[in-house]
Amino acid sequence: MVTTFDDCVGLLPVDYRDRLRPEFSFLTLLVSKEASVYESLQKLRHHKAVGSWPPQLNGVRVPNFQLTKEFGGNSQQYTQRLTQLTTGYKTEALDTAIMMKSAEHEYLGGQLLTEAYSPPLIAKIKEHYKSTVEPSAKVPTLDRSGAITGFSVNPGSKREYERAIRDVSAFAGRVIYLQREVERKRAEKSAKKSSLKDQADVEMGDVSLSTSSVGDQVRAEIAKLGIVPKGKAESSATGKKSGTGTTSSTKNRQLPKPLGKSSQAAQARKRAHIKATHDKAKARKSDAKGKGKDKAATPAQSGSSSLGKRHKRTDSNATTSGKAKKSQTSK
């Protein structure tokens, strides 16, 4: 069954396959161009139907001329005329583009008719036969005694040549048909994707984002699945320490839906681990403080005792000096 380009070329006589392969490839290229032109034509017709402009005309703007402040209020009739002229030009240009693309599509379609592509293919076969096959495909002719009397074209090569001329149009038509099927499937796929995109745009347009943002919708869907967002446990623990994190989060948005049993157990284990780590750190900190107090007490006590001794020596000295003064006075 002939289902590919190579299958069609393989059915040609061996002597003409390499010569006709480029010609068949050109026919497939014409089919692709015809499909592309038709797609462009349909887009232009769609712009005409909905009142929009293709990219080539969308950039054409109404010319803006600077006017004085005093005359600005009297320019309305002129600016309206400029707008009308610009719109008229764009409309006429779009109509002309549609006619041009229609003519191009008809021209390419005409090149793919049997009456158009068969004569050049047959001419290629004849030229190749005369220049290459016939000179190298001669066999000797013999008389009754077996002597060579001359040379003539190989009857087998002659039959291959005649078969190539007879069948080339059918093989070329098959190549065109197969390529058109490829382009048709591609166009259907593209139209389906475009339809799905338009449908999605309409559905998104029906959603009111004034009461629920996209982020809130995503978080709600995640909560339905029972998935705990990464970093949520850490933020809740920080909120407990500061006393403000949980309160501010609950004020800004609604609380998520309850988690499943497995998620709750995982959350409980995580909280217990965080609490145990916090308690160990607190215990190590308190132990370090206690040891520091014990070390500081010894030099303080020794300092106080030496200070007491200095006070005693001072008092005794003061008493002695007092007694000496009294004795001098009595004398």
Strand order of the largest sheet: 1-2
- What portion of the residues fall into strands of 2 or more residues? under 5%
Q: What is the subunit arrangement here?
A: single chain
Query: Mean of residue pLDDT?
Result: 80
Number of strands: 2
> Largest beta sheet, briefly?
2 strands, antiparallel
Q: N- to C-terminal separation?
A: 154 Å
Can you give the helix content as a percent range?
Answer: over 70%
**Continuous helix count:** 10
C-alpha-based Rg, rounded: 50 Å
Contiguous low-pLDDT stretches (5 residues minimum) are 244-251, 299-305, 323-331
Order of helices and strands: HHHHHEEHHHHH
Biased composition (Low complexity): 235-251
Region (Disordered): 183-202, 230-331
Biased composition (Basic and acidic residues): 183-200, 276-296
Structural write-up:
It contains 10 helices and 2 strands, in the order H-H-H-H-H-E-E-H-H-H-H-H. Among the domains are: 169 residues, no CATH class; 31 residues. It has a two-stranded antiparallel ribbon with strand order 1-2. Helix 2 packs antiparallel against helix 5. The radius of gyration is 50 Å and the shape is flat. It is mainly alpha-helical and 331 residues long. It starts with a helix and ends with a helix. Helices cover 78% and strands 3% of the residues.
Q: Characteristics of this structure?
A:
about 325 residues, mainly alpha, about 80% helix
